[in-house]
Amino acid sequence: MIHQVLRIENDLGLHARAAAKLVRLTARFEADIKLSTRSPSRTVDGKSILGILLLAASQGTEVEITADGKDEQEAMQAIVDLVEGRFGE
Amino acid sequence: MRDMPSKKLAGIGLSAGVAIGTAYRVEQKGPAFYRLHIPAADVPAELLRLRKALASSKKQLSRIKRRFVEQIGQEHANVIDAHLLILEDRKFVDRVEEKIGSLQESPERAVREVAEDWLAVYRSLHDPFFRERGSDLDEVADRVVANLTELDATREEDLPEDLILVATEISLSNLSDYPLAKVKGLLSTRGGRTSHVIIISRFYQIPVVSGIEGLEQLIRPGDSVILDGTEGVAYVHPSSSQKRDFEVRRQTEHRQTLVLKGDTSPCVTSDGRGVSVYANTEMDSEVSTALRLGAEGIGLFRSEFIHLMSKERAADEEEQFLIYKNLAENTGDRPALIRTLDLGRERHRSGSSITGDDFLGLRGIRLSLKRPDIFKIQVRAILRARAHGNLKILLPMVSSVDELIEGKELIREVEADLAVGVSNPEEPVEVGIMIEVPSALLILEDLCDHADLLAVGTNDLIQYTLAADRSSEEMSYLFNPLHPAILKSLDRIARVAEESRRTTFVCGEIAAHPLYAYLLIGMGFQNLSMNPFSIPALKNAIRNISYAEASQTVDQLLKLSTIKEVRAFVDRRINHLQPVSQDATAALLQG
């Protein structure tokens, strides 16, 4: 199991379309993926659009990503690329 | 058979105008009763029923999305995207299947319960944008439940042509289930779940009456209904004389929102910034209507029509003078900006002595400088009529300072001629330019040294900036005011205009759209000119706009680099644009 904390840098935060991109990405991996925010403390499934939107992560929010499974390294790298690339926006 | 007695239902009007049609119930919550438990033996069949309902829901939503893109625009289609993704959410679907499989709940109950669990959490969110996503889930759940019982099987061609949609609450996706051309009015107990519905209804001038309790008992499907969105009332089983009266009113209003009332009070944003609203017209006879509707002057008087109406050649000086005189007398002290002849592609007239060239060719000021004889006749007519009002001149298609200087020289020549004999105001006429060619934008500071005022022709500016023919369907994806290049161009115009203290009008069609008006006001524009019939509704929208907020929004928008991002941002903010406040509604009703 691996963890990494990422800051949401794109202007709109994890809004509907960014969340959609994330869901489409995470769905490709076997690993269990979780997203957590500290305040309010909340952990959601990284493969669920309803879950991700529930984080209400606006610009600047720090989100901890947890990946657990065979392809956790690849999954984490892909997520980091997406978030750091501001969801390609 | 005796006629049913006519019933009057009082509510509040959320979108003005009169509609006459046939009541049609929008099923919102699915059937009120369904099985709660299923026998263990039915589980496989019930799971299959769920999957079928999910599949039909996806199909419907994809169809709606296509229709949205075609009829309303990509921005609103994104709302439907979110719905599609919810249908695919394993967290949601797995939990529903689990409830059916292990708890033996009926699919209807399972869907509603799982949705309610999520909704409870969404309702607790602080950020209104994310909280709103809960209502998306609610709509999706309603759709799946409706499909479970196949309530949504109505085929479009079976629908009456004059639908009055009746529902406890009408959602955007409800509205989009029906062909917009057939929807004549909306009647509901509560206002739209999101103000999207109201914005779209107003934009398409579909009357809406809301706030009527117990609609299920009061109206049956197929009942004849009259909706008066201006007064906020509905009549069920109207008498034939009522129908006749309203039909006359409907035709008179011809869906022109608030035409009967107009709105001549001054317009300021919610935080006190004044915005003046003007009319675009092409006939002097339209001016009094425009003023009654609330125009504070004529921001753009297109003079092409005069020429096209004139029989064989360009209209002569006397013919033109009478029209401009009438215009000047009607507007009085209020400004009226006459755009000199701008025959272009759309106005091509074969056999005429004036023929507009292609849109990259000889048109506007270019043609005027080539044919100073025709130009000077028009200028003479305008300058003579100026004695009767506050007329100004706009030169179209200016792409260089040279053209402006030459054009002004011709105008000053005519002015000098007229000074002898004819009564002529002492002050030279104000000469402005249309900003519609990208080169003008690049040399705007220099143009401002010579131009008294500016008028932005947004349609042409967009077309020329993006090199995209606006009549081409293939280009429509690009022909978009939300293109970052267009936003940056408009913003630059606003800034230069302010620095050089030039009064600037925005005269394109976009000024009439609440969303774009919001952005234009945020950029700093204070003079918007539009189709006269859009004025009352737009004034109302502007009063709900906060300049400070709009200007912040614009600052953020200008940082975005893709059309997609801009749209996403606008999607997120659109709910702020036209809050349907009770005060605004009350003000409308009081006129």
Highest CATH level, the class of chain A: Alpha Beta
Q: What is the CATH top level name of the largest domain in chain B?
A: Alpha Beta
Q: What is the averaged pLDDT score of chain B?
A: 82
Counting H and I runs of at least 4 residues, what is the number of helices of chain A? 3
Question: What's the alpha carbon Rg of chain A, rounded to whole Å?
Answer: 11 Å
CATH topology of the largest domain in chain B: TIM Barrel
- Give the domain tally of chain B: 3
- Residue share in helix of chain B: 40-55%
CATH domain topology of chain A: Histidine-containing Protein, Chain: A
Notes on the structure:
The complex is a heterodimer of chains A (89) and B (591). With 89 residues, chain A is α+β, with helices and mostly antiparallel strands. Chain A has one domain: Histidine-containing Protein, Chain: A, CATH 3.30.1340.10. Chain A is built from three helices and four strands, in the order βαββαβα. A four-stranded antiparallel sheet of chain A has the order 1-4-2-3. In chain A, strand 2 and strand 3 form a beta hairpin. In chain A, helix 1 packs antiparallel against helix 3. Chain A is globular. The termini of chain A are far apart. Chain B has 591 residues and is an alpha/beta fold. Chain B folds into three domains: 122 residues, 3-Layer(bba) Sandwich (Glucose Oxidase, domain 1), CATH 3.50.30; 109 residues, PtsI, HPr-binding domain (Enzyme I, Chain A, domain 2, Orthogonal Bundle), CATH 1.10.274.10; 315 residues, Alpha-Beta Barrel (TIM Barrel). Helices cover 48% and strands 14% of the residues of chain B. Chain B contains 24 helices and 16 strands. In chain B, strand 4, helix 6 and strand 5 form a beta-alpha-beta unit. In chain B, helix 1 crosses helix 5, helix 2 crosses helix 5 and helix 20 crosses helix 22. Classes of the chains: A alpha+beta (89), B alpha/beta (591). Chains A and B meet through helix 1 and helix 2 of A and helix 2, helix 3, helix 4, helix 5 and helix 23 of B.
